[in-house]
Structure formats: structure tokens, C-alpha cells
Backbone:
């Protein structure tokens, strides 16, 4: 016999999920918004998002037998409040990525929940399939979609991951009524360093620092680089200012607490990582998604933004990196630090036309 919604919610709590709800499997009301969002091109290079939008906005297109969608929220809020040390050049990592990789951890827990359903066709997803997890979580009444587009859960704020199970079981949907919301607050809109929140809930991902530092594989657009500040992987600017995160309960999951050295990482150390060191250091971290070249590119930009002359030696080393992507961003950063000597030296040896152009621009 299938468990009731209440039994599933209890089991989810025992598995460490702060919140769990159920939405009936039907086309999401977010569908129209999503299609407009795609038409505007806001997905950038994440072309996988644009593939088959109908499937993404209706769980029954993904699993034909689907009757209900179970959705869970797990906090990763580790409450980092320490001021940034000024001893060395340091960067910043979004809090979702400070600890261990969440996909495998949450999928393993979700699979325990799935086993209770005794439904062999049920499927689990954590960021791993064409499902609109936030829209489903809002439909199940877990919280509401804030103006910063994040799902905000009462008492837990928005620093949390979502996961879903699609099942053929008919489960009682949970309440969809949320009596609280963002009200008149617009702090997230005005705090976004790259003005990526065009209107409440409407994000141009191409401008979002999270996209630029995690998903984008190529060059970061010149006009957005200064906005990155010291963020080297993801960004929390729109969540840090959210009043709902001020008194949010901390995560109960030790795996999501910061790995040693990941809070305000030392940029001069990390910019010089070899492929092997990168693989070893980040094998179980969300940071592996950026790959070594992506992370090194981001660190070069952060060093340029910090404007600290101590950034020149590590950037001069990065300007001979095997990757032209890294070299061109190191050139930009050296330009910001006014190191024309280092740029001239690099220009003499540079063969790649795009990187030569980047050096010329940096010198100019
Ligand atoms: C692509 C993606 C991104 C992209 C695009 C983000 C975006 N806002 O679209 C980038 C790389 C920028 C990104 C960044 C982040 N992401 Co992300 N991302 C995803 C992913 C894979 C798909 C999201 C998607 O479909 N986007 C398209 C937009 C249109 O849809 P949406 O934001 O999901 O849903 C919105 C619309 O439906 C809208 N909507 C619906 N109807 C209507 C009607 C009106 C009138 C309006 C205005 C809006 C509206 O409201 C929804 C909520 O924003 C999901 C996982 C998943 N499969 O869902 C994770 C996910 C959304 N990301 C997550 C996280 C943690 C982040 C970051 C916080 C990471 C970070 N710190 O750097 C940032 C937050 C940036 C932000 N403010 O949105 C979590 C969110 C958890 C939560 N509490 O909300 C998810 C659910 C992953 C997970 N499994 O936990 N992400």
C-alpha cells in the first residue's frame, strides 16, 4: 500500500529534508512564463533548457503514468557571517557550493523516500532532469517564489536545494496557500551587481554571476567583468540581502558546511592549480562543474577586480597558462592592474590571435 502524504512528510523529515510537499501532476502555471523567458533568449548558452519546453512544464510528459510530484527542500545555510580577512587576496564562493556536492547526497536520500512508494516507475531528480523544481515547490506550497526568483521557505529562507520525485501514486496535494511574501521589498533587485533581475522573478541568466562563473564556458563579456567583484563561483548577492534569510534556521546537514579553505579562498594559491590538483581538490565539490579553466578564468577576473598589486605575479603566471581562455582573462586583469610590462612580455610570445587581441585591448 502506498504511504499517505503525511507519512511521506514524516519520512522526509527523518531523512533530513526540512520541508516536503506534494503537487498534483498537471501542466505548471509557470509554463507560459517559461516559454516567454526562452523566447527572450535569457538562457544564454544553456541550450539544454530550451530543448522540449512542453516536457519541462508538464511532469506527465516526462513520466506518462505521473499522478503526483513529491518535492523536498534541504537547507544548505551554514550561516557564514565572518568579515573577509584582508591578509591576502581572497575570493568568494556562493554558499550552495561551499560544501560537498549536493546532487548525489540528495538523490540517495530521495531514493529512500522513493522506496516507500513501491512504485517502480517513480523517478527522482535533483537538478538532473527537465523539471521546473521551483515552480513545483511553489505549487506544493513549500514556499513562494521571491523577487530574486528563489524559492523562499518560511523559517528556512532561500538557502536550500530542491529535489523531486515523479510518481504514479495518487497522493493528497499539500496546501498551496502562502500567507507571506516579499511585500514591497526590492533589495534583491537593487543589489544585483550585474542588474540581472530585470523585474521581480524575471532573471536574465546571461547577466547572472552564477551563470557567468559556473555555466558559461567561453569568455565573460567585458562589460560584465567588473560586476563579478570577488565572486569566483556562483553568487549570493540577491540572497544575502533578503530579509527572509536573516533569521533562517541553519542547515542540519554537516556535508553542506564549508570545506576547509573554501570560505574566502586564497586566490594566489588557486589560480595556479594544475589539472590534477583541481581534480583532487574538487572531486566531491560543486566547483568541479566550472572545470579548471573556468575556475581559473574566474579567479583572474576577481584578481583584476581586487585591484591589489600583489595580484600581478600570479596573473603573470596565468598569462602563460595552456588555455587561451585563461590567458585572455589574465591579460584583462593585468590591464586593470596597470602591468604594461607583463602584458608586453606576454604579447611577444603569444600566438593565439584572440589572446593577442585581448592583450592589445588590455594595453589600450
Ligand atoms: C538553469 C538554472 C540556473 C540558471 C538560471 C536561473 C534562473 N533564475 O532561471 C543560473 C545558472 C543563472 C542559476 C543560478 C542559480 N541557481 Co539555479 N537552477 C537552474 C535549473 C537547472 C533550471 C531553472 C530554470 O528552469 N530556469 C528557468 C526559469 C524561467 O525558471 P525558474 O527560475 O526555475 O522558475 C521560475 C519561473 O517559473 C518563474 N515564474 C513562474 N511563473 C511566473 C509568472 C511571473 C509573472 C513571473 C514574473 C515569474 C514566474 O518563477 C520561477 C522561480 O524563479 C534549476 C534546477 C531545476 N531543474 O529546476 C536550478 C535551481 C533553480 N538553482 C538553484 C540555485 C541554488 C541557484 C543559485 C542560488 C546558485 C548560486 N548561489 O549561485 C542561483 C540563483 C540565481 C537566481 N536568482 O535565480 C536551486 C534553487 C533553490 C531555491 N531555493 O530556489 C535549483 C532549484 C537547483 C536545486 N535542485 O536546488 N540557476
Residues:
Amino acid at each position: 500500500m502506498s504511504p499517505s502524504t503525511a507519512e511521506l512528510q514524516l519520512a522526509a523529515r527523518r531523512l533530513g529534508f526540512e520541508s516536503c510537499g506534494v503537487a498534483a501532476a498537471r501542466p505548471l502555471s509557470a509554463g507560459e512564463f517559461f516559454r516567454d523567458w526562452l523566447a527572450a533568449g535569457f538562457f544564454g548558452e544553456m541550450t539544454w533548457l530550451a530543448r522540449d519546453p512542453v516536457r519541462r512544464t508538464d511532469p506527465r510528459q516526462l513520466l506518462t503514468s505521473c499522478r503526483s510530484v513529491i518535492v523536498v527542500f534541504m537547507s544548505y545555510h551554514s550561516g557564514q557571517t565572518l568579515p573577509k580577512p584582508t591578509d591576502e587576496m581572497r575570493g568568494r564562493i556562493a554558499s550552495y557550493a561551499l560544501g560537498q556536492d549536493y546532487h548525489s547526497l540528495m538523490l540517495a536520500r530521495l531514493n529512500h523516500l522513493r522506496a516507500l512508494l513501491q512504485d517502480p516507475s517513480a523517478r527522482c531528480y535533483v537538478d538532473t532532469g527537465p523539471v521546473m523544481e521551483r515552480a513545483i515547490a511553489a505549487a506544493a506550497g513549500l514556499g513562494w517564489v521571491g523577487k530574486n526568483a528563489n524559492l523562499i521557505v518560511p523559517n528556512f529562507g532561500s538557502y536550500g536545494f530542491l529535489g523531486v520525485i515523479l510518481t504514479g501514486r495518487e497522493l493528497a496535494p499539500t496546501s498551496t496557500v502562502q500567507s507571506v511574501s516579499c511585500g514591497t521589498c526590492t533589495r534583491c533587485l537593487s543589489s544585483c551587481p550585474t542588474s540581472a533581475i530585470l523585474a521581480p522573478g524575471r532573471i536574465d541568466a546571461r547577466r547572472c554571476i552564477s551563470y557567468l562563473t559556473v555555466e558559461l564556458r567561453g569568455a565573460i563579456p567585458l562589460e560584465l567583468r567588473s560586476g563579478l567583484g570577488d565572486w569566483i563561483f556562483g553568487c549570493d548577492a540577491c540572497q544575502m540581502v533578503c530579509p527572509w534569510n536573516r533569521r533562517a534556521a541553519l542547515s542540519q546537514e554537516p556535508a553542506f558546511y564549508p570545506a576547509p579553505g573554501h570560505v574566502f579562498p586564497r586566490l594566489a594559491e588557486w589560480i595556479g592549480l594544475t589539472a590534477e590538483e583541481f581534480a583532487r581538490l574538487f572531486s566531491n565539490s560543486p566547483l568541479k562543474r566550472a572545470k579548471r579553466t573556468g575556475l581559473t578564468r574566474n579567479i583572474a577576473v576577481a584578481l583584476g577586480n581586487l585591484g591589489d598589486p600583489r595580484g600581478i605575479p600570479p596573473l603573470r603566471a596565468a598569462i602563460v597558462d595552456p588555455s587561451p581562455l585563461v590567458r585572455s582573462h589574465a591579460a584583462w586583469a593585468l590591464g586593470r592592474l596597470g602591468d604594461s610590462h607583463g602584458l608586453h612580455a606576454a604579447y611577444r610570445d603569444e600566438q593565439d590571435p584572440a589572446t593577442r587581441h585581448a592583450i592589445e585591448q588590455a594595453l589600450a
Observations:
- DSSP finds 17 helices and ten strands in the chain.
